[in-house]
Structure formats: structure tokens, C-alpha cells
Design a protein that fits this description.
The complex is a heterodimer of chains A (351) and B (603).
Chain A lengths: L37 H16 L6 E5 L3 H4 L9 E4 L5 H11 L4 E7 H5 L3 H9 L5 E6 L2 E2 L5 E2 L22 H8 L3 E6 L3 H13 L4 E6 L15 H7 E10 L14 E5 L5 E6 L9 H13 L3 E8 L6 H4 L19 H7 L5
Helix pairs in contact in A: 1-7, 3-5, 6-9
Chain B lengths: L7 E9 L4 H14 L4 E6 L8 E9 L12 E4 L5 H7 L5 E5 L14 E5 L1 H8 L3 H20 L3 H11 L4 H21 L17 E5 H12 L3 E4 L6 H14 L11 E4 L3 H13 L4 E5 L1 H17 L3 E7 L16 H5 L9 E3 L4 H18 L2 E7 H5 L1 E5 L17 H5 L30 E3 L13 H17 L8 E3 L7 E5 L4 H13 L5 E4 L2 E2 L3 H8 L3 E6 L5 H9 L7 E5 L8 H17 L1
Parallel strand pairs in B: 1-4, 4-5, 5-6, 8-9, 8-10, 10-11, 11-13, 12-13, 17-18, 17-20, 20-21
Antiparallel strand pairs in B: 1-3, 2-3, 7-14, 12-19, 16-18
Classes of the chains: A alpha/beta (351), B alpha/beta (603).
């Protein structure tokens, strides 16, 4: 089977963004995932977020590993360079690509198998380095392409379609991210388009590593009774803690909530992420508090969502590396060549 | 066959690692070099921080031979744990120098060698107070003793010490004092100099003593590499150390203090490979230094870069395998691994440098080849080349060099095109055009390690898949015209014998060829410098009845590749294999070839 190139058909009077692009200009090839797959909803949210942020598609990078979720990089933004890399190794490729040019809006797409088993190490180190990217972890608790094995995010006791319940403790990507130093940690659900779009926009605008753990049910292998990653289960135990809106530099912050419930976080581009706390006691800028709240939710089988932690003050990798603003891939050779004379001089110690 | 004699002998020093002997040994070698006499230095050290045996071998070779001789004429036995072994290794007629502070009755077991005792520790204890300093000064004292025995100029030693401790003047006198302790003791108690000694020449002008890893790191800097990632592994680490050092010195914007490079210490070799492949995809010249175990881990990524056509450079500084092997000992054991790294049908461009000067130029060349052919390039070195100091011509750079960035489309190029297909052979040279992210929407394409067609679209159609992989093979074969050609040393007379070697087998092979010819056994020698093998390689084998393939591994990896990649008949090729972990020496090669050639004559 070859891939489908979706024809671009413009509707009349289609709304356009600041760049004069329609939402369709942010679409990709036709999805080959199963009908009803949560990942397709996530793709749609990504399309909307990039469209609404007016990011030129060719100034974006979309990078993934291997798996159902990783296939989705070709289902949005045909005008972006995309890379479907090696299983569990998207973070290193993305880090390298961003090191060569930090000016590109970078989205990494991964799944729970790609991130939490084979790729756990690479994900952790991308977080440690605070690589300036948005990392979407499309989490369905199961390996789809190999037909239904449990992944490391499957909850204790969760039932497979056939066979015995899961007996191993799950890795919660949110708790993990908080513990290794991620500077933007969020959770959402493929069924909540509104929250997801807001979080993707905020994550793209965050300077540093942003992770969104998206519960994205697998309709073929993990949407049955007894599964804790099904649509039904997620709707039942879904809980919102902090809503996040990206406010562009040109927009004004409108405080529509009571004092103490709204918290603006200033971004490097002059814009803001406006946090609206549904749970008034929650402080998403306190890593320790966020961690204990997430752990408490996990024990209570509650699926805590929203922007659960943000720290905008940390340097990203580009800054830590003290790199020039001009991307490495644009520095002319004349500036990279120290010259024949310098070579002769530096060999004094070898004579 | 050679030595000992004037400017022709080998000193081997046995010490304990972590005692500071490396700088003393370096001082000895550098002093001889400064006297204008060519030297070869080989460090044989353990995979350990402190306390295990280590040796340093200095070959003084007025004739300028670059490899080991296989003999030891003076053994400086400073490690009691290896006395017996060190004594046994000494050639007949040799000299053993030991610390006579403690009696060593076993030293009398070799009546065919001269034993010279110097009470090094005792003398140092009388003069130096601090315990750690005593150990360091004992090293300098044996430098003095050896200098007196083989006539090394004390003034040269002094000026080297002055350069080393330019910032700590106090240490100059204390070090010189220790040198004098050993020197004076010998002068007082023995007739000097020995029959074999150093006599100043003028043969090191325009030369430098440099290791291959440092030279290769400079090659990366001069090639304009901006991105390096690595996971620390012996013996490749010093390559990244060098890159870091020279970038700090030469690649920082003086006005704002910002770096024009990025170096990332990866969490493992898998990440190192991913990092450089990502950076290279986005247009940075990127590389990673590693060793065999790292190549094994990177294998999946290597196939990805090959199939998706990303220009990236892997430096493999080989060490003995398999598995952890002997991490500080040398071998040429990744010849096949690098040539065909990764699963599926994969073939790579591999360069085989043989000395640090070539390391410098081949490192730079690797990036040009990678970008020209849009494929991973392997630079195959080893611990002998990478970590030992070799005497080579001073490195020079041609400032008119323009990097070959290969076929990359600019925004302007794209604007003139109707459409862009990443893997389409537009020019009929098997090399497609590539675009960098961020250039223009028209240049966008989807990179995937899964089946893809000429338009970079996913495919499971056999003919579309084959079109791409067939082009990859043709592209690889076309690299034959661009890789460094082999170098042939022809015997003065017609001969039925040929010899082929790569990399660090060259020094021993070259010397063996010269000596065999002098002994009436002419052999033609070809040094292969790259894979794919150029047509000359096959022609050379066709031109000879028997071809000795000299390499440093057990399984005759190079020989087997020659069989696979050319039409040479198996019976023509004779493996000469050295894989003890010590650098190859010419005697080994001479003995093996002589035996074979003489056998034939008898038959």
C-alpha cells in the first residue's frame, strides 16, 4: 500500500489566519489509522493549534519514532519537513535537528511504547536538556501495530482484550517528567479538543521542553470493558486541574476569573500563558506540590488533566550551550575556518 | 635484523599506571625528537585508573621507520610485578635498568644481558620530602639515567621541562634536580654512553609529534563541522576532547562570547547517533567519535541514515573485541562491521587513515564525501593511531578550500522548480537533491526509514522500493572515483608477490617491504585507503600470483572483503594476521612473508 496524498480542496469563504493560510493548509496525508482512533483527534488538534498560531508550516519540524502514534507526523502539515525515525529515538534526532537550527517550531510525536519502554532513556534526557520542543505522548496503554500487547503505561489490573490482566506497575509519564526536570508538563485527552488545542499552543510557545501526555484510546485493542485507557473509562475518571490559554503578545490578558484563580506566566516572545485554575488550591509553578497532587490522583484513579506544571525561567539547550543566535546551519564556512596560520601556530606544542 | 646501534634501538619502560610515568616517558621521547632524531612511541596501558602494569616503548629510528621493530634493547624495569616478563622480553645483548634500592636476585637469570642498577628510590628519598613527589621524581630520575646511558642532551631535557612548567617555575628546578640524580649516578658508576645511543640529526624539522585523535579533531574543525555528539568510550574520547579544546579556542565569537558549535555528551551511543543524524539532516556538519561497541549500538541508526541518505560521519577508533575485549589494546577488528553496518542491504564509504597527518586530511575529507554522496561515512582508526604520538609532517591547510556541501537546493533553486522529489535521480548520477528544513514549503518532504519511493512517499510496492535501493548501490559504487586512491610501493624488480594492508598496518608493512627487498625478496605493496575498493585494488591482485593480506584481526576481515567485492580467486590471497592487541611490528610481517617465500623456493 502506498500513502494517500489528500487533495487540497478549498471551501469558499474559508477563514484564514494571519499568514493568509486556511486550516486545510495545515493538513497532511490521509490517516491510515483505524476509524475512531484517538490519535486522529490529536492530529486534528495539532492542525488547529498550528493554524491558530499562524506558524508557517515550512518553519516547523515534525519528528516521530515508530508506532501508531509516530505514523501521524505525516497526517498533518505537508509543507513541513517531517521525519519518522527509529523506535524510541525521536528525542535524540529532534535534539540534533534543533541544535542545527533552533528557530524552527518543533513537535515530536510519540506513544507510550515508543516513549516509556524502548525510549524512556532518550525522553528523560531530552527533558533534562530542556530541548525547546513540544513532545506529544499519545498514550493508549497498548502496542497497536503488533496487535495488542500491554505497554508500560498500562495500569495495574487493566484487562487486555484477551488473556491475563496487567501485573506490572505503570509508568506515569507526568510523574516521570516532573521527577526528571521537565519545564512544561501537561495531561489531556484526545476527546477534549478544546483543552488539547490550548495546551498544544501553550506547549509550542513555551521555551524549553513541553510534554503533553494525551490519553488517546486505541479502538482496536484497548477500548473494551476492564481497560483503564478506554474512552468510557477516561470520560468517567477525567478531572481538570488547570486550564492554559496562550495569549499572543498583541493580545490583552482578560481576567475573567476571581483573583487567585488566574495566573499569567510571561513567555519569551512577550506573550503569556494564562492559567485558569479549576482547582483553586493547585499551584502549577510548584514542582513538589504538582508531584504530590499527581501521585494522589494516580492513587485515586483520577485522570488529572491540564497544565500541571510550568517553569518558564529555565534556560533551554540552545542557551545552556551558549550558542550564537544565527543557526549553525547558516554560519558561513569563512567563519568556521580558523585558517592556515592558526593551524601552524597551534602546532607549537607538538614540535 | 636491525639494531641496536647509533640512532637505532628500542627502549621499553615498564611502570605502574597512575604514578605519573606517562609524562616522564613523553619527555624522553620528545627529547630525542628535539635532537632531530625520528622516534616512534607506543603506549601500552591497562584499562584501569591506578595500580596496574603499563609500558611505554620508544623506538629510535634514524632511518625514520614509523612502526615497531619487535625488539627491546633497553628495558627500564620499574614495576616489580612485571620484572620476570620484562626481563624475558629483552633482546640478547640488551641492557636492563632497574631500581637497585631493593635487591632483585632474579635479574641475574639472564647472563646474556647487562644489568644496570640505579638506587632511584633511595636517592629520591634522601632529597625529596613529600611521598607523592618522591614517586614523581623517581620517574624523572630514570629519565636522567637513561639520558646518561644513551647520550640524550641534558640541555634539551631542561628546555622541555621549562616549557612544561612555564607557569610553575619552582617545579623546573626540582624536576631537573631529579633528572640529575639519575644522570650523575650513571656517569659516576658506568662507562657511558652505551654502544647504542642517540646522536643529533636534522631529520625532524617540519615534523610534529601528534596523535591521530587530536589530528582528526582538527580535521573536523577545519572541515567546518559544527555539531558533535558522543558517549565517552576508550579510545575515542580524546577525539572529542580535541574538538572541544580547539572549538573553545578557535570557534567562539570574540564579540559576544557565543559558540559557533554545539557539542553534546549523549546518554549512550544510540542517542549520539540520533543526535548527529538529526543535526546533519538539518544541515550541520555532524560527527561522532566512538569505538566498536559504540558502532554495534549505533547500527540501527546507521541503516536509517544510509536508507534516508543523511550525510554524517562516524569515527571508529578500534579496540580489541569482541564484547568489551581489551579496551586499551589495538586491533583492526571493525573492518567488516563498518563496511556493512546495520541490518538489511547496507554498504558504506569507509576511509582508512594510516598516520595522524592523514587523520587530519581524511577527517575533513569524510565530511565532503558524506555530503557529496549523502550517506554515512566511516573513518576507521584504532587505538595505536588514535592515542599514540606519531612523527608526521606538520599539518597544513589550504585556505582556498571550499566545503563540498553536495546537492542542496536553496530557496532560489526551489522557486524555479515545478516540484521537488527528494529521492529522484534527476541528473543521472544516482545522487538526488536534498533540502534543509525551513527553506521553502516546496522543499518539504517526509523522511522515513520505512519503504519509500523516489518521491519520498511511503511505499510497499516492490518496484518502487527496488528503484531506490538499486540507486543507493549505484551511488555507493560511484564513490570509487571520489575516495582516496590506494598507494603502491613497487619493488625495484619484477615480482610475483604482492602485499596489501590498511591503516596502522602500513608502518610495519612498509618497513618489511624495504627489508625483504634488501634481503633479495622483492614484494610490491599496496596500501588501500578506502572502501569501496577502487579498480586499482582488483588490478593489483590480478597482477600478482600471491598476495599477502596483512591485517590486525583473527578472521581475515579485509581478505574476506576483497574476496566478496572483487573477482580475485581465493587461493591467491594469503592472510597474515596479528591480533594480540599490541601494535603490529615489521619483524612479524618479515618472518611471515619470508617463511612463505622460502617455502616456495624449496618447493
Amino acid at each position: 500500500m502506498t500513502s494517500f496524498v489528500k487533495p487540497k480542496i478549498r471551501r469558499t469563504n474559508e477563514p484564514l489566519n494571519e499568514l493568509g493560510l486556511a486550516r486545510a493548509d495545515y493538513e497532511g496525508s490521509m490517516s491510515t489509522l483505524c476509524a475512531g482512533c484517538g490519535h486522529d483527534s490529536v492530529t486534528a488538534a495539532i492542525v488547529r493549534a498550528f493554524y491558530e498560531l499562524s506558524i508557517p508550516p515550512h518553519r516547523a519540524l515534525k519528528i516521530s519514532g515508530i508506532g501508531c502514534s509516530s505514523k501521524t507526523t505525516s497526517y498533518f502539515m505537508n509543507d513541513s519537513h517531517g521525519a519518522n525515525t527509529v523506535h524510541g529515538r525521536m528525542p535524540s534526532f529532534a535534539t540534533g535537528a534543533l541544535s542545527a537550527n533552533n528557530d524552527l517550531a518543533t513537535i515530536g510525536i510519540s506513544g507510550d511504547g515508543d516513549s516509556l519502554s524502548i525510549g524512556l532513556g532518550q525522553m528523560a534526557h531530552a527533558m533534562r536538556r530542556n530541548v525547546n520542543m513540544l513532545y506529544m505522548l499519545e498514550n493508549n496503554g497498548v502496542y497497536g501495530l503488533t496487535k495488542g500487547q500491554f505497554s508500560a503505561s498500562a495500569d495495574l489490573g487493566s484487562l487486555p482484550k484477551k488473556g491475563d490482566p496487567n501485573e506490572f506497575s505503570p509508568i506515569d509519564p507526568v510523574a516521570f517528567a516532573l521527577s526528571v526536570g521537565a519545564t512544561f508538563v501537561a495531561r489531556s485527552f484526545s476527546g477534549d479538543r478544546k483543552q488539547l488545542v490550548s495546551l498544544i499552543k501553550a506547549g509550542l510557545k513555551h521555551k524549553g521542553f513541553a510534554m503533553i501526555d494525551v490519553i488517546s484510546p486505541c479502538v482496536s485493542f484497548n477500548d473494551h470493558k476492564g481497560s483503564t485507557k478506554s474512552y468510557a473509562h477516561t470520560y468517567e475518571f477525567y478531572s481538570k486541574a488547570v486550564h492554559a490559554d496562550y495569549i499572543a503578545p498583541s493580545q490583552e490578558i482578560v481576567a475573567a476569573y476571581d483573583e487567585g484563580e488566574v495566573m499569567p506566566v510571561e513567555l519569551h516572545d512577550g506573550g503569556y500563558i494564562q492559567l485558569r485554575k479549576i482547582d483553586a488550591d493547585y499551584d502549577p509553578t510548584d514542582r513538589g506540590a504538582a508531584f504530590s497532587r499527581v501521585m494522589a490522583s494516580d492513587s485515586a484513579n483520577e485522570i488529572l488533566t491540564g497544565l500541571l506544571y510550568i517553569d518558564e525561567s529555565q534556560p533551554d539547550l540552545h542557551e545552556t550551550q551558549n550558542m550564537e543566535a544565527l543557526p549553525l546551519n547558516e554560519i558561513p564556512y569563512a567563519e568556521l575556518n580558523p585558517g592556515a596560520e592558526a593551524l601552524s601556530a597551534l602546532q607549537a606544542e607538538f614540535r | 635484523m636491525s639494531g641496536p646501534g647509533l640512532n637505532d634501538f628500542v627502549i621499553k619502560i615498564g611502570t605502574v599506571n597512575g604514578t605519573g610515568s606517562a609524562s616522564a616517558n613523553g619527555l624522553l621521547m620528545k627529547s630525542i625528537f628535539r635532537m632531530g632524531v625520528p622516534v616512534v612511541g607506543k603506549n601500552v596501558f591497562p584499562s584501569n585508573i591506578q595500580g596496574l602494569p603499563t609500558w611505554y616503548e620508544i623506538r629510535v629510528s634514524g632511518d625514520g621507520h614509523a612502526g615497531r621493530s619487535g625488539e627491546v634493547h633497553m628495558m627500564v624495569a620499574m614495576n616489580q610485578a612485571t620484572y620476570d616478563q620484562d626481563l624475558a622480553e629483552l633482546s640478547t645483548g640488551g641492557v636492563l635498568v632497574y631500581d637497585s634500592t631493593w635487591p632483585r636476585p632474579q635479574l641475574e637469570s639472564r647472563p646474556d644481558v647487562t644489568v644496570i642498577g640505579v638506587p632511584l628510590m633511595q636517592m629520591c628519598n634522601e632529597v625529596v620530602k613529600a611521598a607523592r613527589s618522591r614517586i614523581l621524581m623517581k620517574n624523572m630520575a630514570y629519565v636522567g639515567a637513561v639520558a646518561a646511558l644513551v647520550d640524550i642532551d641534558l640541555g634539551v631535557i631542561r628546555s622541555l621541562i621549562e616549557e612544561t612548567f612555564a607557569a610553575k617555575a619552582k617545579l623546573i628546578d626540582s624536576n631537573m634536580q631529579a633528572v640529575k640524580l639519575g644522570y650523575d649516578y650513571i656517569k659516576e658508576h658506568y662507562e657511558t654512553p652505551l654502544r647504542f645511543r642517540v646522536s643529533a640529526l636534522d631529520k625532524t624539522k617540519g615534523k610534529v609529534m601528534i596523535d591521530g585523535n587530536t589530528a582528526a579533531s582538527l580535521g573536523c574543525v577545519y572541515a567546518g563541522a559544527t555539531f558533535g555528539a558522543w558517549y565517552p568510550i576508550t579510545p575515542s574520547t580524546s577525539l572529542m576532547d580535541g574538538f572541544f579544546k580547539y572549538c573553545k579556542k578557535l570557534r567562539v565569537n570574540k564579540e559576544n562570547g557565543k559558540n559557533k558549535y554545539c557539542i553534546i555528551q549523549a546518554e549512550d551511543e544510540l542517542a549520539a547517533a540520533g543526535l548527529i543524524i538529526g543535526a546533519a539532516w538539518n544541515g550541520a556538519r555532524a560527527f561522532t567519535p566512538t569505538s566498536g561497541p559504540g558502532i554495534s549500538l549505533m547500527a540501527e541508526w546507521i541503516g536509517f541514515a544510509y536508507y534516508t541518505e543523511i550525510p554524517v560521519v562516524f569515527f571508529d577508533i578500534q579496540r580489541t573485541g569482541p564484547s568489551t575485549g581489551m579496551p586499551t589494546r589495538t586491533q583492526q577488528c571493525d573492518i567488516q562491521t563498518t563496511a556493512y553496518a546495520s541490518h538489511g542491504d547496507t554498504k558504506h564509504i569507509v576511509l582508512y587513515p594510516s598516520d595522524p597527518n592523514e587523520c587530519f586530511h581524511f577527517a575533513a575529507k569524510s565530511f565532503d564525501l558524506a555530503e557529496r554522496f549523502q550517506t554515512p561515512v566511516f573513518f576507521l582508526s584504532d587505538i595505536d593511531l588514535g592515542m599514540n604520538d606519531w612523527m608526521v609532517d606538520e599539518l597544513t591547510w589550504d585556505d582556498s578550500y571550499i566545503p563540498d556541501r553536495g546537492k542542496v537546493l536553496s530557496e532560489d533553486d526551489l522557486s524555479k522548480m515545478e516540484s521537488f522529489s527528494r529521492y529522484l535521480d534527476v541528473d543521472g548520477d544516482h545522487i538526488p537533491y536534498r533540502t534543509l528544513p525551513g527553506t521553502d514549503p516546496k522543499g518539504a518532504y517526509f523522511l522515513r526509514g520505512s519503504g519509500h519511493n523516489a518521491h519520498a512517499r511511503y511505499t510497499e510496492l516492490g518496484h518502487e522500493y527496488q528503484e531506490v535501493v538499486d540507486r543507493l548501490l549505484a551511488k555507493w559504487e560511484s564513490a570509487k572515483s571520489a575516495v582516496p586512491a590506494p598507494i603502491v610501493q613497487k619493488a625495484a624488480s619484477q615480482t610475483r608477490y604482492g602485499m596489501i594492508a590498511i591503516g596502522t598496518s602500513d608502518a610495519a608493512a612498509t618497513e618489511a617491504r624495504t627489508r625483504l627487498e634488501a634481503d633479495g625478496m622483492p614484494v610490491d605493496y599496496m596500501r588501500v585507503r578506502a572502501f569501496p575498493f577502487t579498480d586499482e585494488v582488483e588490478a593489483f591482485m590480478a597482477d600478482h600470483d600471491e598476495v599477502f593480506i596483512i591485517e590486525q584481526n583473527r578472521d581475515a576481515q579485509l581478505l574476506n572483503m576483497l574476496l566478496t567485492e572483487t573477482n580475485v580467486p581465493r587461493e591467491k590471497l594469503i592472510p597474515i594476521l596479528h591480533y594480540s592487541g599490541e601494535p603490529l611490528n615489521y619483524r612479524f610481517v618479515c618472518d611471515a612473508l619470508e617463511k612463505r617465500i622460502k617455502l616456495r623456493k624449496i618447493a
